[in-house]
Structure formats: structure tokens, C-alpha cells
Amino acid sequence: MKHLSLILERNRTALYPDVTGGTAAEGFPVKQKMKGKRVNLLGLLSFFVILGFLLIVYLGADILTGTLYFNYHHFVKKLQNSITPIEHSEHFMISAFLDHRVDRAIRVISIIRRDSLQPLYCIYHHYYSDYQVVTAEVEIHSDHFGFPFGAADVLCRGPSTQNASHVAVSTNTSISYSMDFLPVRNRVPTETFQYNFTICISSLFRNYNNALQFAQTMEMYKLVGVQHVVIYNTSCGPDLEKLLQHYQREGILEIVSWPVDQFLTPSAGWNSQKHPGDLHYYGQLVTLNECVYRHMYQSRYVLLNDIDEIIMPYKHANLPLMMQGLQQKQKNVGVFLIENHIFPKTQFEESHKYRRPEWRNIPGVNIMEHIYREPQRPHIINPTKLIVNPRYVLQTSVHSTLKSLGEVYRVPFNVCHIIHVRVALQGRLSKEQLLVDSRVWDFEDQLVPNVDRALQSAGFNLYDHSSFTQATVLE
Ligand SMILES: *[C@@H]1O[C@H](CO)[C@@H](O)[C@H](O)[C@H]1NC(C)=O
Ligand SMILES: *[C@@H]1O[C@H](CO)[C@@H](O)[C@H](O)[C@H]1NC(C)=O
Ligand SMILES: *[C@@H]1O[C@H](CO)[C@@H](O)[C@H](O)[C@H]1NC(C)=O
Ligand SMILES: *[C@@H]1O[C@H](CO)[C@@H](O)[C@H](O)[C@H]1NC(C)=O
User: Fold this and answer.
1) Domains of the chain: which residue ranges?
2) Which of 450, 455, 458 is nearest to 359 (CA)?
3) Residue ranges of the chain with pLDDT lower than 50?
4) Spatial contact of 336 and 447, defined as CB atoms under 8 Å apart
5) Fewer CB in a 10 Å sphere around the end CB: N or C, the chain?
6) Distance from the CA of 87 to the center of ligand 2, in angstroms?
7) CA-proximal residue: ligand 1, atom 5 (nearest)
8) Ligand 3 atom 2: the closest Cα is on which residue?
């Protein structure tokens, strides 16, 4: 009970000065003074009375509901990690959800070392009630791109899983108190959602510092109706960090700490030959699945795309109108595929009307300058990203779901596609061979001032041009 002794320690230092009439500056001469002074016996007594009182005030509710031990555990877990090693194995558990669609089994999103499979057990219970132990079913997702570790679901099926509050995945059927239990989420399904549109952005890593593009993208998303953005953060650059903190303060952004590099050597790409490592792309598949389950009863729709991509409605003013239109015609669709289109960051719009001095010192790409889209390549199917109804998704990959309920619908390019400003894919094409697509300009009236405001709130000085460097513009 590390937590308890901590509180004891804190109370002791707070209380002794009162008890002895001394001051904090005297340090701890308490023991000496107490010797032979009966009045201090009274002091000691009142110390314990007050301590008892404070304990009841602090922890009373927890003691009454029997959640003290578990809150302690989760308190510590929160301070630690979203990634928990499974003892005596090379595997990891991430988070646990009740799956109302699959026999109310408990699904533990996990990272499994594919060549080291061993029997695993689920140990679950409802607060202080009896523990249940069942053999776990491990489903490794079919997309692992050849890396040794893969995203997986550990399924716990057994009596009264629907009542479980906590679960642990273990290599052993016996229970030990050092075991890490995860809280079971999604225990109560709802039909009303806190958000209509949530974006899940997987694993931000290394020194990613594309601040201007991020601010523009976030403001663009707000204008098309997104209420909530979730980013899994391994690490990032200093300017992006300022913006992350700004949007977190604002309330639209939720940061999930994702220190996967402390446990594994993540690959910086999807190709295990080119980018060797333990796990595909900083655990992208794990975070996407975690995010879908985390928002199953929080968000009507979840968008799964990268940090530099905007899922943009072209026929409707915003995402709510678009999804209403699509869903009216496609009643049983749970997965909408959105085509990705590349806007090379090396081709600039010629009037330079958006090359604003205010943005000169902000590192990153200015998406408003890049309105040239690469044409469709013959015989090549464009990769897609996803808008999903999370309640229809069992397992997802990056470009499509792996297991889902309902139907899958490929949204026509002219209704919606992704604006993805990045290095060219068809680098040989001249500007004349690219297509003009200036959809973001439609939002300029609000977008430009909103971006300025966000940058300033994040702590950037837009009007100091003394440190202007050409390099930031050319990036
Ligand atoms: C779940 O908990 C409720 C309330 O405590 C109880 O009535 C019910 O029997 C439990 N169900 C199972 C399957 O244990
Ligand atoms: C399970 O734990 C018990 C008690 O700690 C131990 O004796 C046993 O060897 C363990 N079994 C496995 C398979 O690790
Ligand atoms: C979500 O959409 C519904 C109906 O389309 C609307 O009533 C509700 O206010 C929206 N919720 C949010 C958080 O915007
Ligand atoms: C992102 O992660 C890095 C590395 O752990 C950390 O230094 C930074 O503060 C995190 N940013 C936010 C906004 O949480």
C-alpha cells in the first residue's frame, strides 16, 4: 500500500508542527520533544484522530465502495503507461472493453509476439467479488506486415464477464497481488453520443514538427464539424508540442501517451524490409483499434486518418450533412472508404496570396499554397482511409477494416476525398499535368483568422519578422 504510506507521510509533515507548537522550519525535532511531556501524548492522540478523519474524508467513498485498491492501481497505472507488459511473457496488454456484440466477452487489445505464443488466461472479477479464471482466446490481426509483434485481441469468454469491472491477462492461473488489472470499459452501451465526429490519429513520433499544417488541419476539421481529435503521442517536435498543448487546453484534443519505444523497437515505416523493427509503424494498428473501441459509445462516427490528411466533403458543406446524405441511401453501411489524393508540397499556387507574412516563422507546410492534385494513375486503385460507425467494427487495419458488421461502401471521389499535402508520389509530373483542387479556399474567411488565433494562443508571435528565414517557407 504505497499510496497509503504516502498519504501518511504527507499528513505527518503537515500535522506535526501543529501538534508540537513548533514550525516547519524546525524540521522534525518531534521525537525529542515528546519524551517526558505528557501534553504531547495528547498531541499524538489528536494526530491519529485527525489522521483518521482525513483518511475517511479522502478515501471514505472508496472504502465504502470497495474500490480503494483498484483506484490505487489505476492511479499508478495512469502515471505509468498505456502499455502493460504481461509478466513471464513477451506480450503486452493495452486496454480492455466489454464487447456487447460478441457474447459480452471482454476484449483486451494487446500486442502479441507472434512466434512466442503460449497459453494465456484471463482473470477477471467485479471489485471484491470472486475472481474468475478462463483460458484466453488470442486473435492476432491478419495485418501485421511481417513484423515479429502484432496487434491482437485477447478474448475472455466466461461466466458473468458482463459484470466484470477489472481484468488481467496472465500466463498463470493463480492470482497474485502484484498483477496489473485493467479496468473494463464500455460496460454500458448507449445510444446517445458525446461527439458526432471523432478523429483518431495514430502514433506521433520522432521530431515531427509540422506545426503550420497541423494548425490548419485542426481548424479545417472544426469547420467541417469534428468535435474531438485523439492523438497517440510517442514524441514530437517543440513547435508541434505548443499546438498540442493549446488544443488540449481548448478541449478538442485528447492526447494518449504512447511510449511504445520504451518497450519495443518500433518500425518507422510499414515495410519490414526497409524499416526493420519489432512492430509496424509505431504500433499504428494497435492504436487505431484501441481508439475505435475507446469511442464506441462516445462518438457516432470515427475517422481514421493520418495527421497530414483531411477527409474533405466536396458536395456537402460539412461532415454531418454528408453522412446524413450517405447514410440515408446506405442504411446498413458501417464502414465508409474515402480515397486518398496527393497534393505535392513542392508545387506552389502562383498568386502567392496565402504566402502570408504572419505564417513565415511557423515551421511546416502551408496547405493553402498547395492546390495541385495528382491525377488518378491508370490501373491503380487509390488507397483509402476510413469513416466508421465504431459499433460496426470488430477489427480494423489502416486502409480498410479487417472484421466488421454491416456493409462497406466506397464513397465516390466527387462526394468526398482526402486532401493529403506531402511529398509527391508521381514526382515527375509538371504543374500542368496536375489538377487544380482549391477546396480549402472555400473556407478561407474563417480558416485564416482561426489559424492565426490558434497560433497566437499556442504562443507563436505572428508579427515578429526579424527572425525570418527563407528556409521555413521552402520546407
Ligand atoms: C451480474 O450482477 C447483477 C447485479 O449484481 C446480478 O443480479 C447478476 O446475476 C449478475 N450476472 C451474472 C451472470 O453473474
Ligand atoms: C504459477 O504460479 C505458481 C505460484 O506462484 C507457480 O508455482 C507456478 O510455477 C506458476 N506456473 C507457471 C506456468 O508459471
Ligand atoms: C450530433 O448530431 C445530432 C443530430 O444530427 C445533434 O442533435 C447533436 O447536437 C450533435 N451533437 C454534437 C455534439 O454536435
Ligand atoms: C508527447 O510525448 C513527449 C515524449 O514523451 C512529451 O515530452 C510531450 O510532452 C508529449 N506531449 C503532449 C502534448 O502530451
Assistant:
1) 80-185, 195-457
2) 455
3) 1-35, 78-79, 469-475
4) no
5) N
6) 11
7) 163
8) 196
**Residue among 134, 160, 161 whose CB has most ligand 1 atoms within 8 A, to mutate:** 160
Q: What was the pLDDT predicted at 62?
A: 57
Joined grid coordinates for residue 374 = 495528382
Give tens-digit pLDDT for 323-365: 999 999 999 999 999 999 999 999 999 999 999 999 999 999 9
**Burial class (CB within 10 angstroms; exposed 0-12, middle 13-18, buried 19+) of 240:** buried
What distance in angstroms lies between residue 174's CA and the mean position of ligand 2's atoms? Answer: 7
> 236 by DSSP, 3-state: which?
coil
Q: Give the residues surrounding ligand 1 with Cβ less than 6 Å away.
A: 160, 163
C-alpha cell, 385: 482511409
Taking each helix axis as running N to C, give the angle between helix 68-79 and helix 2-20, from 0 to 180 degrees, rounded to the nearest 10: 100
Q: What pLDDT does 20 receive? A: 32
DSSP-assigned letter for residue 266: B
Domain 80-185 is in which class?
A: mainly beta
pLDDT for residue 63: 59
pLDDT, position 14: 35
The residue whose C-alpha atom lies closest to atom 11 belonging to ligand 2 is: 172
Distance 241 CA to ligand 4 centre (A): 7
Site residues for ligand 4, CB cut-off 6 Å: 233, 235-236, 241, 244-245, 255
For 155-168, give one letter per residue: b (16+ CB within 10 A) or e: bbbbeebebbbbbb
pLDDT at 461: 96
Tell me if 114 sits within 8 A of 272, measured CB to CB.
Answer: no
pTM: 0.84
Ligand nearest to the CA of 458: 4
Ligand closest to CA 260: 4
- Alpha-carbon distance of 183 to 71, in angstroms, equals 10
Q: Are 199 and 172 in contact (CB under 8 A)?
A: no
Q: Is the Cβ–Cβ distance between 89 and 116 less than 8 Å?
A: yes
* pLDDT (0 to 100) of residue 129: 81
pLDDT reported for residue 269:
87
- Assign a CATH topology to domain 195-457: Spore Coat Polysaccharide Biosynthesis Protein SpsA; Chain A (3.90.550)
Beta carbons of 347 and 398 less than 8 angstroms apart? no
